[in-house]
């Protein structure tokens, strides 16, 4: 795909429909777009929490949703088409390489490694695994390519554990304890191929800037957690990003991350109860204070973990130094919280149509920065969404001027 053209299309589409994805149903009892599409709003509000959960995993179940849902979904799919680069490492992988790595994470590592190795124009002189943890990705690249690897990780304990694993496998992997946010350019060399699987926010932004500054030969990056930044809002890297004028708060940068496919049943139940309690507490504070506005509420208020909604609400009130009268019935308030959660989850399906377009916009913005620096850049998916929703892979190769 032509990156700048797609970027401009996404910019226009996101700006035209920003009322649909900027407002959060969790903090607004009514959304501004509901007046324009009352049939869609009413249909969503009548659905159950189970309906919303099913639609998160199978969007096709919403085929009968009133318009403009279907039209927006079709536009989002078209705007988000990218190549699928799925691949497997052909050789049988030694068991010690994957020992103690959860199955889903190991599959992500192998898919990332296979696609990266296959699509890079030439074997690197050295891999640099950015924010490497114990270096599982780096070891697999070292074993597969027979090229040396440098793993950078700020946690010294992870570095030590990774070094022991690499030595046991007799692989040419060096583990360095380093805070990459303070990293001098000298750590990266022009002959390096830098790789990062699911580097968060400022960490992958720093990687891109360091790669350009050092003139590294190649980069393979799968970004994650775009909202984990120190700045209050998105700071574009590219000239095209700055000219687009799409302002994104840190909270809005979290929209692409609201989809999850890995949570277990117990984790989902705990998450749902926490959110239902927070929504019930919000209704209580609005009505008793006479202020129809969301009051920021910690998911875990200070003090012992509450066992009941009453304890949770009292802890929240104490946190805000509020003296609020008890509701007529705590059980009834909790039921209202669960009903509100069902409405919120279903209304969120509209904003959910913009998760992938916004993520793609953010990744292309980074890709355009690399293009502006003279890199040849391509973008695709390295695995199925079911394995990880964060499946975008950005590949960059230095032009003749950088080599």
Short description:
This protein has helices at 3-16, 18-21, 38-45, 49-57, 69-79, 95-98, 103-119, 136-145, 156-168, 201-214, 239-244, 250-253, 265-289, 309-319, 330-352, 355-372; strands at 126-130, 149-153, 173-177, 192-200, 218-224, 375-381, 392-398.
What does this molecule look like?
This protein has 403 residues and is of the alpha/beta class. The protein has one domain: Vaccinia Virus protein VP39 (Rossmann fold). The chain is 47% helix and 11% strand. It is built from 16 helices and seven strands. The chain has a seven-stranded mixed β-sheet with strand order 3-2-1-4-5-7-6, sandwiched between helices. Strand 1, helix 8 and strand 2 form a beta-alpha-beta unit. Helix 1 packs antiparallel against helix 16 and helix 13 crosses helix 14. The longest helix is centred in the C-terminal third of the chain and has 25 residues. The protein is globular and about 70 Å long.
Key attributes of the depicted protein:
403 residues; alpha/beta; Rossmann fold; 7-stranded mixed beta sheet; 7 strands
Q: Compute the average pLDDT.
A: 93
Q: In what range is the share of β-strand residues?
A: 5-15%
One letter per element, helices H and strands E, the order comes to HHHHHHHEHEHEEHEHHHHHHEE
CATH superfamily: Vaccinia Virus protein VP39
Task: Give the biggest sheet.
Answer: 7 strands, mixed
The CATH architecture name reads 3-Layer(aba) Sandwich
Silhouette? globular
Cross-sheet strand order for the largest sheet: 3-2-1-4-5-7-6
Total separate domains:
1
CATH top-level class: Alpha Beta
Output the radius of gyration.
24 Å
């Amino acid at each position: 795909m032509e990156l700048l053209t797609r970027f401009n299309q996404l910019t226009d589409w996101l700006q035209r429909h920003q009322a649909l994805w900027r407002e959060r149903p969790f903090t607004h009892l009514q959304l501004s777009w509901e007046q324009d599409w009352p049939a869609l709003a009413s249909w969503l509000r009548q659905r159950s929490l189970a309906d919303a959960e099913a639609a998160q995993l199978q969007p096709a179940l919403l085929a009968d949703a009133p318009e403009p849902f279907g039209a927006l979904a079709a536009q989002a799919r078209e705007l988000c088409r990218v190549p699928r680069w799925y691949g497997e490492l052909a050789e049988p992988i030694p068991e010690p390489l994957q020992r103690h790595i959860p199955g889903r994470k190991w599959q992500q590592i192998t898919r990332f490694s296979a696609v990266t190795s296959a699509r890079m124009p030439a074997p690197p002189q050295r891999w640099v695994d950015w924010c490497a943890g114990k270096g599982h990705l780096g070891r697999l690249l070292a074993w597969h390519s027979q090229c040396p690897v440098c793993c950078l990780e700020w946690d010294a304990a992870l570095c030590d554990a990774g070094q022991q694993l690499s030595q046991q496998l007799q692989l040419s992997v060096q583990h360095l304890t380093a805070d990459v946010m303070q990293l001098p350019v000298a750590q990266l060399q022009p002959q390096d191929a830098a790789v990062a699987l699911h580097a968060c926010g400022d960490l992958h932004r720093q990687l891109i800037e360091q790669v350009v500054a050092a003139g590294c030969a190649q980069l393979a990056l799968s970004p994650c957690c775009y909202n984990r930044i120190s700045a209050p809002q998105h700071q574009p890297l590219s000239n095209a990003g700055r000219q687009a004028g799409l302002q994104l708060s840190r909270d809005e940068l979290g929209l692409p991350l609201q989809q999850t496919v890995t949570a277990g049943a117990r984790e989902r139940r705990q998450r749902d109860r926490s959110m239902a309690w927070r929504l019930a507490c919000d209704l209580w504070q609005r009505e008793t204070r006479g202020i129809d506005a969301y009051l920021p509420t910690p998911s875990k208020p200070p003090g012992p973990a509450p066992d009941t909604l009453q304890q949770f609400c009292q802890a929240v009130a104490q946190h805000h130094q509020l003296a609020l009268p008890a509701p007529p019935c705590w059980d009834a308030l909790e039921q209202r919280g669960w009903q509100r959660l069902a409405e919120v989850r279903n209304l969120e399906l509209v904003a959910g149509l913009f998760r992938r377009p916004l993520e793609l916009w953010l990744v292309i913005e980074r890709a355009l920065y690399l293009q502006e620096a003279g890199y040849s850049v391509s973008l695709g998916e390295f695995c199925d969404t079911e394995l990880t929703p964060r499946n975008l892979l950005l590949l960059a190769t230095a032009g003749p001027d950088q080599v």
